[in-house]
Amino acid sequence: MINYLKFCFFSTCLCLFTSTVAAENDDLSSMVIVTGPYPPAINEENEDKGYVSRLISDAFSLEGIKVTFIFVPWARGLRMVRLGHEACIMYYGKTPDRVKSFIFSEPLFEEEWLFFHLKSTPVKWQKLTDLSRYIIGATLSYTYSEEFHKLADEKELSVHWVARDKQNWKMLMAGKIDLFPSVKTGWYQLREIYSEAAIKQITTHPKPLKTQLNYLLCSREHPNAEYFRDKFNQGFAKLKKLRPISYYIPDSNGETWPVEIN
C-alpha cells in the first residue's frame, strides 16, 4: 500500500510538473485569428486576406508574432472565441454584451453605416422609428446600434435577419426588402454580384445609422488572449508611427488613425 501511495504521489507530481513546463513553453510566436468574410476589408481570396487582415498581421509582425487566419461564419466565430477555443476574432464594434465576454484592442478603423436602398424607394427619416414602414434587411452577428436592436426586438422595426450580406443584397435588388444598412464596402460587395448598370439602381441615404469604431476582440477564457491583445497594441502603436491610415485604405481622404474617447 505504501509503495502504491508513493507511486500515486510521484505520478501526480510528474503530471503537475509536465503541465507547468508545457504552459511555460507555450509557443507564443504564432497565433490563429478567427474571422468571417467582409470584403474588401477581410477577404479570404486575397493573398493578404484584405486590408484589415494586413494591418493586424503587420502589427503582430512588429512584435515577432506570425498570424494565421481561419474563416468561419460570424456567429460561429464569436462562439469559438467566447468559449476560448481560439484567442482572438476580428473585427467588431463594442456592445455591452461583448464587453462581458471579450477584451478589446485599440480601435483599428472607424466606419460609417448607411442605409442602402433602390432609387425607386423614396426614404425619409430623422429618427429610427420613422423607418417602421419599411422592411429592413440585417445580417446576423453584426453590430448595428443599441436602439436598432432594441426596436427590432420590440417589433417596432420590421427587420429580416439572414446569415450573410450576399443574401441581403439579392433581396434588396429583388425588392424583397426596402433597406439594408452597410458600410462603404457594400459597394464592393455589390460589384462582386451585379453589373455596374444594375448597381445604378442603388443609392444610400445621407443620414448615417451610426459611426462605429471596430476592434480586435480577444477571449476572456483563452489563457494567452490578454498576452496577444497587449502584443497587438504594442505593435499597432509602432505601426501608426510608421504609416498613415491611407497605406491600408487608399480612399481614406486624409483621415487619421482613430482614437477612442472614453
Low-pLDDT stretches are: 1-25
In this structure, how is the largest beta sheet organized?
8 strands, mixed
Helix content: 25-40%
Evaluate the radius of gyration. 22 Å
Q: Proportion of β residues?
A: 15-25%
Total number of helices: 9
Integer average pLDDT:
88
Cα distance spanning the termini: 63 Å
Tell me the number of strands: 10
- Helix and strand content put the structural class at alpha/beta
Can you put this structure into words, describing what you see?
There is one protein chain. The chain is an alpha/beta fold. Strands 1, 2, 3, 4, 5, 8, 9 and 10 form an eight-stranded mixed beta sheet that branches.
Describe the structure concisely for a colleague.
With 262 residues, the chain is an alpha/beta fold. It has 9 helices and 10 strands.
Q: In terms of topology, how is this protein built?
A:
Layout (H helix, E strand, L loop, with lengths): L1 H23 L5 E6 L15 H11 L4 E6 L2 H9 L5 E5 L3 H6 E3 L4 E10 L16 E5 L6 H8 L4 E5 L2 H9 L6 E3 L2 H9 L2 H4 L2 E3 L5 E10 L5 H18 L20
Parallel strand pairs: 1-2, 1-3, 6-7
Antiparallel strand pairs: 3-10, 4-10, 5-8, 5-9, 5-10
Helix pairs in contact: 2-9
